[in-house]
Amino acid sequence: MKAVIASSDVQLTIALQSVLADFDIRHIDTADQVLLEAHLFEPTIVIVHANLRGSLGAAEVAGLLSRRADLRQTWLLAIAPLEMHTAFYEAGVSEIEAEPFNPERFKLRLELGLRAKQTQQALLQRIDIAEQKYTHLLEEEKLRDRLTHMLVHDLKNPITAIMGAVDFIRPDAARLMPRQQSDLIEMAFEESQRLLHLASNILEVRKMRDGKLKLEPRAMNAKDLQNIIEGAVMDVGFSTQDRKLRARVPESLPLFSADEDILRRVLTNLVSNATKHTQSQGKIQLTARAVGEMIEVAVHDDGEGIPQEDLERIFRDFEGSRLTNSTRYDTGMGLAFCKLAVEQHGGAIWVKSKRGEGSSFFFTLPQEVPDYIDDEVELVDG
């Protein structure tokens, strides 16, 4: 360990040297040399005495030393009479030893201070290591994001091409092929559509997290919501045909604000999720109502329900419930998209579920202050 003693008092210097017997010591008796010597010597401790002579006062020297980046790990201590303590503390010293100097008291202070300094240095090293690991993890995450984006983006084109080809032959398949073969065509189209939705969810979740997906909300009424629900059911496709699906949207529903395309995607994901968790002939019901200054939309099903341990993490990326009535692997990206999309609208989303009794997903959207009287709308249950 190294120590710099900045003092013009010979007797004090001798006393300090006795206490600091285990240190490599540099003694400086003028203020002008302290800054240079401290830079070259890289001391563990610098002791500045109040009587230090030179063009700068001792407190000024201490202030300059405390602001030096290369002395960040150095323990800066002053020895001064009581009336100078305030000036030294304002200068940034770690501790002050009062005069008259007491070697035994100083030795105890030194031992405690060095122990504390060693603990601090160990913590700083651990912080530096943690920061390096964190930076490395961020770089890895950015690389994973770029690779995921490239992979998913490149998958969308072939999936779209497959969907186009299958969709082209669907009418003839239903008319000319046996039922079993035409059902396979429908399943191929549906699964391609599911892959496309998954790819879109991954890309748009990433855009939302990066703040790059901008909403285009507009005022909507009950009829708009009914149309969006019907479109979402069509997007889910073939798997809804053997479910008992109903939508109840009251004509009195207040105007609300939403991005039409994003809202359709949210409902598509929630209806698809309900389908995966219900058996054939299972019931799925969509409802809407006004709650305070929001409207609340809900998707209820009578399926298997969600395990309690899955409820807390169900809206996280790749953390959906793995328990489904279908053979599909549930990635959870659809629900992650729903959460980000609803919250970006200024709403909230949550789930209530009990094993064996089904699940209900709720989300809210802000009402829109009406600036016109809308015509009465006629709704038909889906």
CATH fold type of the largest domain = Heat Shock Protein 90
> What is the count of β-strands?
12
**Helix-strand sequence:** EHEHEHEHEHHEHEEHEEHHEE
Radius of gyration over C-alpha positions, nearest whole angstrom:
36 Å
Determine the N-to-C terminus distance: 81 Å
Could you name the CATH class of the largest domain? Alpha Beta
Q: What oligomeric state is this?
A: single chain
For the record, the count of structural domains works out to 3
Main pleated-sheet profile: 5 strands, parallel
CATH superfamily of the largest domain: Histidine kinase-like ATPase, C-terminal domain
**CATH-defined architecture of the largest domain:** 2-Layer Sandwich
The dominant shape is: elongated
Strand order of the largest sheet: 2-1-3-4-5
Structural class: alpha/beta
How much is the average pLDDT? 84
Provide a count of the helices. 10
Task: Give the percentage of residues in beta strands.
Answer: 15-25%
